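INPUT
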Amino acid sequence: MNSELIPLMVVFPLISAILLNLMHGKDRAVRVYGTLAMVVVIAVPLLAVYGNHLFGAHPAIDTPAETGIALGRINLAIEYSFGFLQRALIFLLAAIATFAVLSHTSNEKRASGVYLSMVMLSIAAVSAVVMANDIFNMFVFLEILTISQAAMVVAKGDIGGYKAALKYLIFGGVAGGAILLGIALLLGTFGVLNITDLGNALSGNTKSPIVLTAVGLLVIGWLFESGLFPFHTIKSHIYSSAKADVAALLQTETKIVLVAIAIILLRLFGGLSNMSAVMVGLSVITLAFGSVMALVQTDFRRLLAFAAVGQAGLVGIGLSLGTPDGIAASIFHAVNDALAMSLLFVTVFVIYEGAKTTEFSRLGGLLTKAPRLAFLQIIGIMAVSGVPPFNAYQSEYRLIGAAFQAGYPELGVVIILGTIVTFVALMKGFFLTFLKESTAVAAIGRPQLSNALPLVTFATMVILALVCLGIGLHPGPLYDRFADVAITLTMGV
Amino acid sequence: MRSLYDTLHETLKSRGGTHIGGGFTAEYMLLAFFPLAFVALLRGLDSLTSAVLAILVTALVAFSLPLVKKVSRENSDHFAIAAFYIAIVMGLVLFLMVGGF
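OUTPUT
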């Protein structure tokens, strides 16, 4: 099957990025096209038929003898695979990106074509990474993603954003170099870039030092793209330096890419115990440092940024287990956390827009001014922290179960601890913002925060809260499909 | 335990810059996280050795409290600190992958 809509999920945002860039300065055109483009971006993954798309329609061929490639048949075309997992992840990305776009077009006096162009570029990049069955194509779009994310942070227009973006690009260069060198080693050894072909070529050949070095380099790239230790500080800096609606999109993209690259690593090197141990260890460290650092922050955006990084560690732990239950629970948690954390980032966005600060020392007593916002934030906090009946409860419960079943009870305890710390940190933020008595906000003359929230923002928060609740009450339709994906994945390992 | 509580409270207060409640919780969580993370990392060893090492790590952490300021400093977004840890981890990952456990 060669569904024509599959490449559109990458090509359409790329073309839109170019068009929006050209439209920059024409305010009305940018607003109209940006909004319409998001309708298409959301619709395409829902309408596309499952299958594979071969660019140029090049079929697999018998390997010419003079190439020296050991495989009998190889794929020449760049291949995109589209199944339920890809549909779910790309739809999630499109939904959160739509909020970022609508937030920009409805709240800014002049819509920026360049900014929306970067949002489109990041959508195209993440969609490509999720679908690519070609390891070099994945690398190219990871680089595009890094650049577009840095540009979205720069769009905030303050010196903190510039600094964070510059650091992100420097470390992104290091990680990108590591991924490219890893790919080069694999290409030099096996002569193929198609991930399925590479998996076939690697079976039984994973012990050579060249392959193990390539694995190490690809794992380093995964750490950067996923914001895991030691890249967790720069990732949290990026989240907290961006506008909160952009931060919601950034953390969603990070969780999707975390899952996508980990699945590629598991498909290629799933049997390697060294890789699994390294991934588990660094994920645990990320969860510990992310959660603990969230506790000691004095700014709500920094607190959320570290909590988001800690939750990425949680997703990494499940994927590193490599069992069907662990993988399914991790993918499920990535989706749940992206939704709930986006809700929290939006609530903080509202606080920042109203009070012009998210420093706890300057906040307090906002419950009487904005009770709706407080209610929605507490829902977000419960959802992120795994409190029933919200969505993350279902995935964290399954993650803990998967850790015990895999024979790692200590990881189950670590997950429980991480969840508790996250809950305490977020409740601390809620208390200092809404419950603590303070006149600081009124004193600085910026009591703009009120119960009358902008329509787009309010609707987004309500929808996110309802989705978190809905998945929490009925996890089966989503989780069962992820479980099928995980079983298929581990059968191939 | 009361004296540990008092010591922690006084030290956190004297150093400032952190909410005492958050700092306290972070201290106790670090105390729990370190040995558990250590056990998870050293699963390749036999259970007796990993248990002894976990107890040693717990003792080391307990005598090093309060840790939260040190952990905050090492987890800052300062370029040089981040670059240092990235270099260390890159070397460590490659060493563990190629050299094995």
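end of record. Residues 8-492 of chain A form one domain.
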